[in-house]
Amino acid sequence: MAIDGLTMRFGERTVSQDIDLTIGAGEVLSIVGPSGCGKTTLLRAVAGLIPPAEGEVRIDGQTTAGTPDGVAMVFQHFGLFPWKTVEANVAYALRVRGVAKKEAQERARELITLVGLSGFEKSYPHQLSGGMQQRTGLARALAVRPRLLLMDEPFGALDAQTREVLQFELLRIWQDHPVTMLFVTHSIDEAVLFGDRIAVLNGRPSGVAELIDVTLPHPRDRSVLAAPEFLAIRERVWSLIMNADARP
């Protein structure tokens, strides 16, 4: 995937300007920056939910228009249908693509098992904890076997303990089923933990202040949080976010 010269505006206000990013197959690109710098706006532009003022998004060399095929998104506030069960929520993504009901149900059950929700297939969102709802949202996104998975602060609405549990659950799933991922987060630790590279946005309008390589080996577990390289990258990202003049 490539983002070329992307500029986002709301009325007269330019949120981000001339953003250029690429992401290779199977790579995780984390995006961080101060509040209001346009991280989620960028993600929604990639998803085709809002059009850019300038620039383009290309997936597999093709310029996207509208919501591109093979792209799935996981939202901060779950985005589940409250009147559908866990199984029906997960299967919905397949049914709207014309997959037969039986096949969609079988695929949904596979993903429900993968995310650790076996036994909750017939439960409704209001009967689930926040962590379980987000597991459902992740299963729904993975059901379509996406080429590109967009993560919009997926753990931002969870308590600290649940957030950490799900971080390492997602790492486990990604290591077993690699998928190209664009990961927006306010958490610097989370950005380093998941990212192969980190794009730090800064300025008003925002741009890419720096792209940072994360060479920490996979698989990653809790021990990586104390690694000297992890701590050094975290400090570098923090300094860029705090420096309003960091953008070149």
Number of helices: 7
Strand line-up of the largest beta sheet: 6-7-8-3-9-10
Helix content: 25-40%
- CATH domain class name of the largest domain: Alpha Beta
Number of strand elements: 10
What characterizes the major β-sheet? Answer: 6 strands, mixed
N- to C-terminal separation? 23 Å
Compressed to H and E, one letter per element, the order equals EEEHEEEHHHEHEHEEH
Structural class: alpha/beta
Q: Name the average pLDDT.
A: 89
Q: Please, how many domains?
A: 2
Q: How large is the radius of gyration?
A: 18 Å
> What is the 3D form?
globular
Catalogue the unreliable spans.
none
> At the third CATH level, what is the topology name of the largest domain?
Rossmann fold
| CATH homologous superfamily caption of the largest domain | P-loop containing nucleotide triphosphate hydrolases
Which architecture of the largest domain would the CATH scheme give at its second level? 3-Layer(aba) Sandwich
Share in β-strands: 15-25%
